[in-house]
Automatic annotation (TrEMBL):
It comes from Musa acuminata subsp. errans (monkey banana). Coiled coil: none annotated. It is a single-pass type I membrane protein. GO terms for cellular component: plasma membrane. Pfam families: LRR_1 (PF00560). Keywords: Cell membrane, Glycoprotein, Leucine-rich repeat, Membrane, Receptor, Repeat, Signal, Transmembrane, Transmembrane helix. This is Putative Cf2/Cf5-like disease resistance protein. Its main location: membrane. InterPro entries: Leu-rich_rpt, LRR_dom_sf, RLP23-like. The keyword Signal applies. Belongs to the RLP family.
Amino acid sequence: NSLGGVISEVHFENLTRLQVLDLSDNPITISIGQSWVPPFQLRYVYLTNCQLGPQFPDWLQFQTQIQELYLADCKLAGTMPAWFWNISSSTIIFLDLSNNQIEGKLPSSLKFTKLVILYLDSNRFEGPLPTMLPSTLDTLYLFNNSFTGQLPIWPHVHSVALSDNLLDGGLSSSICQWTYLEYLDLSDNKLLGEIPHCLGESLQNIYFLNLDNNRLSGEIPHTIGFLSKLMLLQLKNNSFSGEIPLSLKYCTNLWFLDLAQNNLVGSITLWMGENLQQLLVLHLRSN
């Protein structure tokens, strides 16, 4: 729709039974006083693309039953208020605060939450990544921020997007403990060193692996061929050396393979055409 105008607390004062509020994708300005206490308890809040910020809406702190909270593209700015993670710890399962200008650091542990999906991408978060996540968390999108430091041990996540940050240090063997991982994007960081051999032995469920535009080096480990579900492999613009591992011929589900802009040597062997019959995109330039 294209509903416009300004919504204030007056619009809600008699809606005592309201449980679902969905105003998303409308050019609506939500202007509510910071001292307002809502007469209802919401379970589902969808305000994506509404004009809500720059200040975080204080009335949310009185909502203790929210399960899904979508505030993406709401022009929120500044740091998250201290009370926010208190309401998040109780009932919120899906949280989307992406594409705002929220600053500051995340708590060192989010284990106290019940989150299943967390989208904080395209903000201005900084500092280290949380060291502990809830076992319920399935999907974590933190890309396009300014997170620094190394990767923690997150054994339960399925999908992780951390591209366009400032992560540095080695791609340590801690990543091999992410045994439920299916989707991993670490592109456009400052990661150093080699791909650990255990990655190919441990991440048996992964189908998407993007390590583009880092500072990784050494040979591509032969254990990469153990990733039989792999559909997309992107290692472009690193400093990998040696030959393309023969074991890649066992990744027969690959449809996108990008090994461009490295220091690889050797010949392009016949197995690429014989075994990788699902390939739609093959990039090998500038080696």
